[in-house]
Amino acid sequence: MSGKVLVNGANLYYEKVGCGDHVLLLVPGALGCTKTDFKPQLENLNRDKFTVIGWDPRGYGQSRPPNREFHNDFLFRDADDAVQLMEKLGFKRYSLLGWSDGANISAIVAARWNERVDKLVVWGGNAYFTHQELVMYQSIRDVSKWSSTMLKPMVDVYGREYFEETWHNWIDMFTTMAGDSKSDTNLYMEELNKIQAKTLIIHGQKDAMVPEFQAKYLNKHIKNSRFYFQLMENTTYTLRYSDRFNQLVDQFLT
């Protein structure tokens, strides 16, 4: 089943598969959507155990128009969108699988709507970013330097012009948030100790985008969490290592 639901003034696209009692919401990363980030989970997670909901946050994937706008509170806006979407779909309680920005959005949902969240699985998330990480973000601003493997799926979804413009806006937003400061920039650090859900934090040993200390920070400040390190090489777990990833998720959730 797929369709669109009006949430907070935006028509959000979703896909639903399976009929299991355990409901999962998949939360994609920056500029990601169901098509780019979670195809193996929608296709291969056990449909008798799980009801799996994939969605495209506003301005991403098939949740356009409107075009994506970035503000300092965009993670909190997307978290509210996720909760309201599930409410309109009739789901009061569910687990969350989120990566990159989606990990951050999922953590905020678990913190602010803890009565709705059963379990939480996150990878590639960061509750703050350092100046060194900001420099790294800026170094990958030019998408013409990306590999075709990384670039093509995004261009297929968005077209080159929209993707490039939106990616630049994402980088520029973090640059604006940091300002002239050389110190760390808070995203949602104060929310972590509010999370009550059992949490699995996954980190790859060769993750180029998110340093290991970010995953360890989440593990330290989410009181009911486990840290699974060196599972796979990088953050494309859900695609490149989907069988292993799905097995790990299944075991943790059930």
UniProtKB/TrEMBL annotation:
Boundaries of every AB hydrolase-1 domain copy: 23-147
GO molecular function: serine hydrolase activity
PROSITE patterns referenced in this protein's UniProt entry, alphabetically: PROKAR_LIPOPROTEIN
Pfam families hit by this protein: Abhydrolase_1
Designated name of the protein: AB hydrolase-1 domain-containing protein
